[in-house]
Write a structure and sequence with these properties.
Oligomer: single chain
Shape: globular
Distance between the termini: 16 Å
Radius of gyration: 18 Å
Largest sheet: none
Number of helices: 9
Mean pLDDT: 77
Number of strands: 0
Strand content: under 5%
């Protein structure tokens, strides 16, 4: 666990340096391979009998960095993205949602991350950019996003591990940590 924290801190430092020196292209070159590795490990490896623990892929390297970079790209190309019709975005979200449900039933590992998930996320991100006033009207959502999002992001893995360990100790489930 400490190793993962150190790796994440190094990655945050990498991003800070990249952004400080205006070298976003380094981020752009890394996010697609990282998404492919994540999808391969969580969705395609189990087909061949290779089980990769979600704790190895649900971290800043394979989850945070790619989506952080996608956020930068969406912001950078906001004017071009603004031309996409909302109905197409809703269709992309619906297709991604249906694809995720199908992938969930076909998958042998509960990774919670599928190709459909990527479509849902991209569609939702772009839809949120196209309609920022909806977000501004939801005061409770704005408060969470402004005040609590970093805390939630940092602490959710720890909370999930504590819950999983408690369930293992109680004999309710086997732990994916020890597989």
């Amino acid at each position: 666990f400490v190793v993962f924290i150190c790796i994440n801190l190094l990655l945050f430092s990498y991003i800070y340096i990249v952004l400080q020196f205006k070298k976003e292209r380094f981020l752009f070159l890394t996010f697609i391979p990282l998404l492919i590795i994540r999808l391969s490990a969580t969705e395609f490896a189990p087909i061949f009998g290779i089980i990769v623990s979600p704790y190895l892929t649900r971290n800043f390297l394979f989850s945070g960095l790619p989506f952080f970079t996608i956020g930068i790209l969406l912001f950078k190309y906001n004017n071009q993205i603004a031309t996409i019709k909302s109905r197409w975005l809703i269709i992309i979200i619906a297709i991604g949602w249906l694809l995720s449900i199908g992938e969930m039933f076909l998958s042998t590992v509960d990774s919670g991350y599928f190709i459909g998930t990527l479509l849902v996320n991209l569609g939702a991100f772009v839809l949120a950019l196209r309609h920022p006033n909806v977000y501004l009207k939801l005061q409770w959502l704005r408060k969470i996003g402004t005040n609590d999002s970093l805390f939630i992001y940092v602490m959710h893995i720890l909370v999930l591990q504590i819950i999983e360990q408690a369930l293992v100790i109680l004999g309710i489930v086997n732990s994916s940590l020890f597989e």
